[in-house]
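Much of what follows relies on a compact textual record of a protein's fold. Think of the row as the fold of the chain written in a discrete alphabet. An example makes this concrete, so a full record is given next.


***
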Amino acid sequence: MAREIERKFLVKGDSWKTLAHQQTHFAQGYLNDIKQSGAKSSVRVRIEGDVANINIKSLEIGLSRDEYEYPIDLKDAQNMLKTLAVGPVIEKVRYLVSYEQHLWEIDEFLGDNSGLIVAEVEMSSEDEAVILPQWIGQEVTNIPRFYNVSLSQKPYKDWTPHEKSI
């Protein structure tokens, strides 16, 4: 079993873009409805550039969650996103930025989630110290609406001004 340990933050400004050493277009869709009674996980298909995988994550909100990920055929993934996705497919550009001892994944959302930029940093333990770059804003690790699975059900464009201001 794999355990993902990460923190999520909003991003301030765009100074981080000059530090990015890689960027990749992502398209992902969910194959199950997490609002269904008894749902314990999300099942997602994701295309990262020209690579595809299927991912299963526990529905816990917070620093760590169970996560399983397996490669799948790109054409199968494209077909699944077209025919099996529940709700809209999320699109974003993921930028990779190295800062101090950590690799930051910065997601600039597109389409119905345009305007939202979230940075994630994976850690080896929940109490690992992370030095925050100046472009990091408020932490949103424990706020469910900032998770991709939630964005697939209620996109950023439908948030109230209060929700957008945290």
